[in-house]
Amino acid sequence: MPEHSAGLSASLAWCARIGAETPRPGFGDTALVWELLASVAAVDLSLARMLEPHLDALAILDQAGLGDVATSLDGIGASADSTWGVFAAEGPGQKVTAEHSASGWQLSGVKPWCSLAGTLSHALVTAHTEVGRRLFAVDLRDRGVVASAGPWVSRGLSDIVSAPVTFTAVPAIPIGDDGWYLQRPGFAWGGVGVAACWWGGTVGLARTLYAASEAREPDQIGLAHLGAVDIAVESARLALAATALIVDGAAKPADRPSVTAKRVRSIVVAAAETTLEHVNHGMGPLPLVADDAHARRVADLQIYLRQHHAERDEAALGRALLEAGGAPW
Predict the structure, then answer these.
(1) Architecture of domain 72-175
(2) What Gene Ontology molecular function terms does this protein carry (predicted)?
(3) Contact at 8 Å (CB) between 26 and 58?
């Protein structure tokens, strides 16, 4: 695993190598995939933030029957060495449309929240067709792609610039039919892969608190902080482990992917925010100002967690429960 100081190019090249060796979720090794993401995140959340969408893109392509990227996506210069992002965010006044002509598909418009668009080689991008939303693969090195440098003043994940991208008649290859990207079970499971990264970052914080507790005998308040963190971290781990079994078809209910994913993501976020609070209260300001790795991990995790939309995502879970029907407990 590259050092944090290795730079984006070296880190992304490492992601490409790991992606070629990592199994895809849903085929018996989902726990292994999420353990990989969590293990990386426990050391370097920034690196995990690069690896997770790359693995997600490869899984999406595999689900679409395009696992041999060099052959199926040769038209956009993709290869085994390609580095991938997944750009599916929508924003007010920003929209990417897809038009088909005799020469093929082309994307035009503005897509918000495109992480590392100026550094990655390729991306899977959602765009609006005449029928609905559809997923497309594009070459980010095409001259019709302009990646904005900002605004990006984030103190957390500061090297993972997530800013708008403008597409102008960019050649694109469709991945699945209209609506396929959002309707497939893999969409929900990809969101849990992100939660595995959140959990890994949480483990990194918990280890810092544990090491401090070993180094200096804590008082009753310190012991309470450590116990609360253990409960939070272990609860989230159990939720992720149970979900991995569901994804692999070894446990029920695999027919409620949206409910399951929303639930476990919220469980992990609650554990992470609980851990942040107890670590901050238990350790005070010193590590935040004197320990570079700890201060960076705190800032990285806080911004990464905001991929979860807090109460809005909890409301979405409530809605999904009612729509699924039947009390789940």
Answers:
(1) Beta Barrel (2.40)
(2) oxidoreductase activity, acting on the CH-CH group of donors
(3) no
CATH 1.20.140 at 1-64+179-329, yes or no: yes
In a 13 Å sphere around the CA of 2, the CA atoms on its Cβ side amount to 20
Q: Any idea what DSSP says for residue 144? A: T
The pTM assigned to this predicted structure is 0.96
Question: Which of 179, 178, 176, 149 has its CA nearest to residue 162?
Answer: 149
Is the fold of 1-64+179-329 the same as that of 72-175? no
Tens of pLDDT, residue by residue over 7-61, are 899 999 999 999 999 999 998 999 999 999 999 999 999 999 999 999 999 999 9
pLDDT of 250 reads 64
Looking at residue 234, its amino acid is E
Q: How far, in Å, CA of 13 to CA of 8, rounded? A: 8
Mean pLDDT of 192-209: 99
Helices 311-324 and 257-283 pack at an angle, to 10 degrees, of: 150
Give SS3 for 47.
Answer: helix
How many helices and strands, by DSSP H and E, does the chain display? 11, 7
Q: Does an H or E element contain 85, and which?
A: strand 84-87
Tokens of 192: 């849990």
Half-sphere exposure of residue 209, counting CA atoms within 13 Å on the CB side? 29
Query: What's the pLDDT tens digit per position in 100-128?
Result: 989 899 999 999 999 999 999 999 999 99
User: Using CA atoms, how far apart are residues 204 and 199, in angstroms rounded to an integer?
Assistant: 9
